[in-house]
Batch of 2 targets.
Target 1
Amino acid sequence: MEGDPALRLRVFDLNCWAIRYLSKRRQERIRLIGDMLCQEDFDLVLLQEVWSEWDYSDLKVKLGGCYPFSHYFRSGVIGSGLCVFSRFPILDTLLYQYSLNGYPYMLQHGDWFCSKSVGSMGARQVLAWELASLLPCSHQLHAEYCRQKDAYLPHRLVQAWELAQFIRHTSKAADVVLLGGDLNMHPEDVGIRLLRGWTGLRDAFAEATHFEGCEDGCTFVPNNCFTDKSELLPFPLGIRIDYILYKAISNFMVKCEELKTTTGAAPGMDVPFSDHEAVMATLHIQRQRQAAGATLTTAEPVLADVVTEARTEVSVGLRAAQRQRYSSGRMALLALLLLLLQAVAALGALAGLDTGQPFPKLSFCLLAFLAIGILLLATGLHLFHTMEVKMLHSTEEQMQMVLWMLQERP
Amino acid sequence: MEGDPALRLRVFDLNCWAIRYLSKRRQERIRLIGDMLCQEDFDLVLLQEVWSEWDYSDLKVKLGGCYPFSHYFRSGVIGSGLCVFSRFPILDTLLYQYSLNGYPYMLQHGDWFCSKSVGSMGARQVLAWELASLLPCSHQLHAEYCRQKDAYLPHRLVQAWELAQFIRHTSKAADVVLLGGDLNMHPEDVGIRLLRGWTGLRDAFAEATHFEGCEDGCTFVPNNCFTDKSELLPFPLGIRIDYILYKAISNFMVKCEELKTTTGAAPGMDVPFSDHEAVMATLHIQRQRQAAGATLTTAEPVLADVVTEARTEVSVGLRAAQRQRYSSGRMALLALLLLLLQAVAALGALAGLDTGQPFPKLSFCLLAFLAIGILLLATGLHLFHTMEVKMLHSTEEQMQMVLWMLQERP
């Protein structure tokens, strides 16, 4: 069986930064991405931030010849931005939306309005006479806006946990699992360690026999003409936040032969494909005689440490969310009290009970409008933070369950 | 291997109708449910509509002795209402929220405000020396309020489809899959046929060797003192909407030995457990020599018909959603136009351009407020229906993909 024909799988992953009306030179870049994909002939193309279905349709028309199978993951109002192009038939798709994704009132960050999700699909590839199921996922986690004081860390950890759980639950019978996407996390961050440790996924960059591209495999680099240089001041080389992760289950073996990233504008072009660099991996998949078994890459005591670290961060987020739920609830209550007081005063005035100087009518009305506004806003916030508390609590509990399991195991 | 020890698994499923402040005699019923579960000693208990975490905590304390493992699926503002009690260790849990669940403005139905979901868990049971993975799901779909003109049918079909896809994607490596819950669908409805056909799940009621309980296995019956008799006028025996479904994958075999339903108040009690009857199944699980393979219970041409029927209903829903998206968009646009006209008139008045009879100020202000209100409401509705169109479209597309696959298969 060792002599079984091997499959060389070429995977392309890119955060396309294609926001209508906002992203610079979007249509031109989508056209360039399409041209390059046609020439390069990958097996699987995982794209993120294709927010407009028109862009997807344009790509689909252009790529129909080389990638006959594709799927756009629709969700939410704006969409998930995820799509997949494949040389292999897509058998089945499933989209999982993360339960937490930032705050609706952080309008300047806007993550809440996109439905950040993981899209999964089953593809089938004929390996001479054997079949291998592939489960490529394309996804994106909440962005990090300030590394020093990262208010979104608990949400990103909940997303990393849900992503890991989703992969564990959906990939049990897959031969090969592939995950490509913009994780918005540095390689040493707790979220990445949690995701890799709990799923057993391997990092193509770390495993690659041959690497070519930006130094340290960075995918968000200051040399790119679309990146904000000030954001990257602490990281002169840039950061690596786009990944291709993989693992083989059952009796398959995967090795990363080569990993490449783009390095700014391609030869003959004056514009890079996106504000992120693309990641391209060549994987070598072979059937092996002995089933490898579902092993975790991280040793269990180390994994327990990672889960403990993540759980601590989630607990910090939980306490903050509880405080915000409490303050918004109190604010709503105060606004309600003010309204009631005003109602009593108004009724008193109607009944002719007020004897002193009456409150000016205009201010009275304005105050009532203000109270109603605050009541509505604070109630909305209270409901939102109630939900946030629920999801953080639930994640913390699940992590605790895993810790018990890891400690109990002989 | 035929002589392998068999496992007799007793499963309990109940929609508890435990809404704080709204459900009649809630606390008393929760106490009774707890007492009965303690006495009966099931292996797995799947509960729905336990909306309050206090009720879950009460049950957990009471059932700690007989069911040492339990999980409450937290989600959304109100919650999922789902919980599981188990004699076997719960290894892992995952919650999937359906993407569509009714309309926020249908306040009287309220489904939108609960986060209807499917909760899944992995449990492990030592079968003498063999291990069997169980995947019990507990879930609830959108309620049916009017069978003659069922406005929620497309949403329920999307939920049934997502539930089926979730089961297909998460259960591939499970030995036994169990699904218990209130599906809000009659046994012959297209949604049930779709779910069963596409997942291969078997209906415990149809397969049971021995049955005891309400006639035709009904679980929502006019005899129950909490049900609204007028709702059940067309169905004098009641309806069967609560199910226990199962299937064995890999080399296990499951048979339903016995199915029971409760029949109103238990002896010595003056109140039934809920407005639904409970479903109790005794399953016989045995390892078998030959792997059965993942077979669908419904023959493929029949399955293709069911998927086509479901797709037609989803298309009808899609067209309705597109119409609603269009009208709400037009309404928002008209409100915006009115506001702009008013702004022009106000600016004109300020510049001293109006010569004729001025518009009364109070009416002018009231009209502006009305226009703002309509603009906000219509925009909200437009965004909601945009999302609805996206999800219906996506489901329709997935069903189309499955139809192609079914037709292409030799």
Note: Chain B is about 40% helix and 25% strand.
Target 2
Amino acid sequence: MSTPQTTNVDSIGALLSPRSIAVIGASSNGARIGGRPLRYLIDAGYTGAIYPVNPSHPSVQGLKCYPDLASIAAPVDVAVIALPSEHVVEAVQACADQGVKGVILFSAGFAEVDAAGAALQQEVCRIARSVGMRLLGPNCLGAFDSAAGFFATFAQVFDGGVVRPGPIAIASQSGACGAYLVHLCMQRDIGVRYWITTGNEADVDLSECMLWLARAPEVKVIVAYAESVRNGATFIEALETARRNRKPVVMLKVGRSSSGARAAASHTGALAGEDAVYDAVLRQYGVFRADSIEQLLDIANACADGIFPDSRSIGLVTGSGGLGAQMADVADARGLDVAPLPQAAQDRIKAILPFAAAGNPIDITAQAVNDISLISRAMEIVLTEGDYGAVVCFLVSAPASAAQTEPLLRAFTALRQRFPERLIVLSFAAPPAIVRSFEAAGFPVFEDVNRAVITIAALASFGESFRVVRSDECTPAAAVDAAPTPWAEALDEHSAKQLLAQNGIPSWPEHVATDAAGVGRVAVDLGCPVALKILSPDIPHKSEVGGVLLNVASPDAATEAAQALLERVALLRPDARLTGVLVSPMCRGGVETICGVFRDPVFGPVVMFGLGGIHVEVLRDVAFRLAPINEREALSMVREIRGHALLEGVRGAPPSDVDALAKALSRLSWFAVTHRDRVEEIDLNPFVVMPRGEGAFALDALIIEKESNSLTG
Amino acid sequence: MSTPQTTNVDSIGALLSPRSIAVIGASSNGARIGGRPLRYLIDAGYTGAIYPVNPSHPSVQGLKCYPDLASIAAPVDVAVIALPSEHVVEAVQACADQGVKGVILFSAGFAEVDAAGAALQQEVCRIARSVGMRLLGPNCLGAFDSAAGFFATFAQVFDGGVVRPGPIAIASQSGACGAYLVHLCMQRDIGVRYWITTGNEADVDLSECMLWLARAPEVKVIVAYAESVRNGATFIEALETARRNRKPVVMLKVGRSSSGARAAASHTGALAGEDAVYDAVLRQYGVFRADSIEQLLDIANACADGIFPDSRSIGLVTGSGGLGAQMADVADARGLDVAPLPQAAQDRIKAILPFAAAGNPIDITAQAVNDISLISRAMEIVLTEGDYGAVVCFLVSAPASAAQTEPLLRAFTALRQRFPERLIVLSFAAPPAIVRSFEAAGFPVFEDVNRAVITIAALASFGESFRVVRSDECTPAAAVDAAPTPWAEALDEHSAKQLLAQNGIPSWPEHVATDAAGVGRVAVDLGCPVALKILSPDIPHKSEVGGVLLNVASPDAATEAAQALLERVALLRPDARLTGVLVSPMCRGGVETICGVFRDPVFGPVVMFGLGGIHVEVLRDVAFRLAPINEREALSMVREIRGHALLEGVRGAPPSDVDALAKALSRLSWFAVTHRDRVEEIDLNPFVVMPRGEGAFALDALIIEKESNSLTG
């Protein structure tokens, strides 16, 4: 049911930068939905042709008005439709007939309302797609390209004037939220180049817009607001394109609290709340997932300067020891390294500021903040000798003091010129005009020290993400090319393990016996104690029929137990094909984990990892990654869970073979991608990780195939 | 080494509201440390007498100047000292001689610098205390009472004018941070009544100031900044007094990141990072611990209206579905209940807004935000029929629109008058003057929806805390009165368990045998398997000598094993007194937990609880409470840990007897408080909680006595 991947992403550009625009349902009243876009286009000095369309007026807002689209002699690139929903099909048909390249459909009353509206939406989309015309909306607030003065929107936010161009682009599924973001940008004097609201996404969706923005060289930062992604593949392509182009993506994805909804059941797929998958995907592709609108803009604005630290170490220069400690707390929580200054540099700081704490935070004290030369010299030492990825300087409210504003601005402008490539973030409280002047000098400024430090952490993460050289093996495109190896229709535990072993995912040794006597013979060969398990492609959950016996102490006991087992299961499940009994030596030692993959409806195969027992089922201590992953990514996944110390060897236990674990996770992800059309879910539970050098093995394996496959089999 | 508890808290008031003030080290230069307080006192219209003291000038800033304190004929209530540290002892002595009631000591160069400074500070403190004169500082920024125009500070923040009075009081250990807070209050037009910076706390400390503020009826909200608390008892008294007076305390406590420092060892005391104890104490006494300066003021300002919700349910009225979802996420994360409107109310909303989502969030859509009567009617329905503790209304940027500002303000003023007792928080973006006008109408306003929801969660928590009726048994004062029961010097495991059992903390049944043959006889009586443990007051950690044997299968095996055990221990620890061997039936079933108490240097006995095994040692899934606690508090502690579901019965296990657990935790806390002078630490590890109705028992118990006790024993 997923939307087919659209390949003509360039057409998004045609929607945003047309040479001519018609406004169908044009109004003389600049406060109405059909009047606002005309007013904004005129106000913003749009240089293309503007054609108001309304049969009731000869002219609208000083422009010649046309009775219908056909009456316009010149080509119309984009048409805005501001009509009640009942007139929309006719208008879209007219656009299609006239060769319009893109339609921006403001009208509400479609799929967001009821089934009739959904049908209407489908019809509108069908007309547009039949001629290759792109359609933005319905139920959207429109779009703009501020550099072209192209404001095809009825967002009230531009009533007092339009936004200035800048390096930021915004794509939002919500019109109101998109408009709010622009309003806040204008309030903070942040320039915005493109803005697209996708509304009901009948045709154009958020992922396409993000992909186009990721490719557009004039865009330096992508801000996105999403409720749900329709096209996982395009979304990933957009994120990966942005990453390759060193273009940060900052995103507000709502729906965290729904994450508990699917958490009731216990199989692998159900462990992933939908939100957990989004969270994993965003982290995996280097997106900063903002907690709030405010944070979204904090980070986006700071990204606009294009300086991304090359390490996670941070220097904290502060006029308040207390807020220095606060910054250190936040830095620690965000994984930044508050490394001390080298001793020589500390000595140099002490020489100019005897009462300063010179380690890190470097507390220059509130008094020193009044002596600008001291700040400059301290900052010079920290920037030259500290080897920090970023430095934050908390100036209390010194810049607000009339006598200090200009000298401080001069001092910091000089620092900026001397260290043009270094990320320096300021924190102080002052009226907006003063804050703007420091921002214009090249410094992100935050009143709250936490926001300064969080911003640095985000920028450092972008830097890390940009530096990753992803091998081609780990792009979804390459994965799909891998040649799948076919397998027999019905997989029991043993054949599933064999198949996985062929694909590099090892299992614990085991033997198949077809009857009770055979079980006894295998037990003699292996030596006791052994484990016995019933083998049947029709019994995925063996414990439900008492199909697992552990610690069987002797060959005789094994024979006897196997006989009882076969009889019991035959009685309980007369329908099931019994292919035999699995016999294996008992596995001693090692750490039990759960490894699995499941198919996410949006993103496809997702790998999951957790520790066994209560860790996954009760503590929900699980990590996810979009498949495929390489071993490096698998290791990061292993380290992400709270209980990862258990694999490092605690309470006298030896460290576990995490390399073998990571290799298996990577191979498992590859297997799932290669067989994505066939595999619904794979559970390796438990997957035991032995001490370092001794490997890691599936003790149990379950491959669930997709319904459609079973039906056609 | 703790500072003795000061009982004359009223003397803090004398420091803040004197009838006369001398400024020793007065300067004509209003920008100098000795000049600023004079300038501020004059500017703020302080009506008391002001006596500049400086031998070099006949007058200073238009006031008659005195060569020394003795030359002032009238009594001096408070003296500010703004002199270099080397002249401070002499000045403080002069103050003491002249009967000054309080000294505010700005000077730096004391304990914050070096040992010589610390000695100087001690001398200054000694002089002050010898005559009962209170001393604020040294190394502080001073204090103010804005209503009296008493600004005894050199904080630069008042260069442009002083702050207006208001219901908020600020106590800060950091001068710079305190000044920054006031600056931000002035920027947000928040009134501040009292402000005290305690600096090095030679005499007056933060806890005393907070206690005084908690008692002062004119103070409605206490804002505190702390690095470390010196006097735990006074601090707790301050928090409990504030709570009883329905006075919210909002606190920034830095030092979270140091919490990992003590986490290496594995015994109970070491499990508590210092910060975890602060965190528990603040939660336990209803303090809102802010994450940032910004949040500190968000919450404090919203508290000033004195409306605290009577439930955690929240109605979300929004002009943006997307940001409605965002608010729902935050509400969920903060434990607020986003309960749907009753169906009848939903129908009424639908009748006026057919396209609205009426459940909760109630999405009135961006269009409706333009029709003020629709907002009013929707809010009226939500407030009347929703039964919500609080309602947040997100107005996008409608109030910023020139045509809507006044009508919206009128509409909300009418709502405020109709629902004066309801907490209604607004979120919108608009210029500061417009925001202020809505705030003045009685609505907290936030640009960011998250901050609106977080504020409501904080106010709801204050409401909950204010409603708690704490029984007298649970105040530290009552605890200290309990009569301690003495015990013999050396406690081995068995006598420790007996002592605890006498105090209501049950142990698993066990018998003491004095020799191997006796062990065999007990094993016959009990029936096997049994557990054997070596018993010695000198071997607290039995496993280190192989002193624990589990699952001993027969009486003969028990005799044999006991003999070997006694011989081995005698060999390994010839010094240890062996009092016998503990024999007990094996304990089957139940959930292993760890219960304990330890003595925090600031707050005294702290109770800790966690699940057994890796939960505490690896996952750090632990809860703490200041002792004593009642059973209700003990239950909240049990529910606080991430793994608490394990006690509710998972994977087919029955629910555990948490009532018995809570009772034992409460009794343990009482025991620790009663014997606070003797007990260093108690570990019950494991403490097994059986299925509901079957109790909870210590399988092991260790009581570590304070060093001083052992030495005197």
Note: Chain B touches chain A through 71 residues (CB under 8 Å).
